[in-house]
# Entry
Amino acid sequence: MINKNIEKIFFIILILTLLIFSSTFSFANVGNTNKEKIVFNSNMLKVNKVKTNVLENSLFSKTSIQMTGDYEKIISNETYAEYNPSLTISGDKSLIAYEILEGNKTKVYYKTSVNNFQSWSEAVYANATFDDITYNSAFPSFTKLTERSEYFGVFLTPDNSSYIIELSGYGLDNIALWDYTNITFNGTYIGDFYDFKTPDVISYPNYVIPWVTGVIGNGEFIEEYDELDCNDSPMFFYKDVDDPYSSRTIVFFPEVSNCSNISICLGENNAGVPMIYGVCEIINNSSKNLLFFNGNPDIWDSEHILRKNIILSNENLTHPKIYAKEKNIFIVAETSSQEIVMYYSNNYGSNGSWILKNITNSILELGSKPVYPDIFVNST
# Structure
């Protein structure tokens, strides 16, 4: 039986029908393809960022807020359709980023609030223009950095599946494009990373590594005489500890494949050490199950482990989200019968510790068909 204290959990179910609102790993560092590569030893690679711009805040439209309940506010825009919101909250301050479709162009905008959602700034366009080319932008993910008083965000561009665009700075006015293709060392080609899927970025309590981005992607990487191929595999990007301002580290797991829709969060292990906990869809035979995993960026360059287990179901499980609080791990997912289920572990997600609960009828009217769940745990 599930612990009765779980009833204290506050669930947020995002129904996006115009609601805008252990394994061996491989290791590479990425930076500026306009320059010679900095370091390559063993399975480590560095290159520098490609382009960096300073944004001018271009105003988009007025904000309207519709109160629909005691705990619910819909931020709407009357001009364009809005998709894929990313909300981050820190006390009374919050930021929401989202994607809009203007004609045939997709663009990322963001708004901020400093008074607990009561009012919002006008929307600011994250202008992804580099060398006079304005890229489409999509799938934003933002976080508030633990060690600093600033937000950080990433998004993708449909124009090139090997680009990841970062937005940073205290005023979110620095934008940088990182190209992970055609990586060479001493003139010799050693790899590509590409076809990135929806990113998820979290804050990490390390001043040098203040954030970690998780994606699903493809890649080929040549290490001495071995070729490592990623086929929809989990990958993690963060600042390189030796060169944090101009290099990025990639950790990728080629032995894990056929994944999609990654979600990561920050937690701790039983020794109080920070850990990244995550979940993604994985095709297992003909079914979509969930892959749960955890790891630690502080030691990924020495401890070559991504601990993981597969959560099996009689139904396809999609669009999972994860939250960790102390030893408790919570995962919500959508089923093929359009219900929301929760998997709960009170032992750090260890294999065999998962308890299943169908929560659809607990939070929604009978006959509802919710999709795209999300979860926030207030107390356990």
In short: The chain has a mean pLDDT of 79.
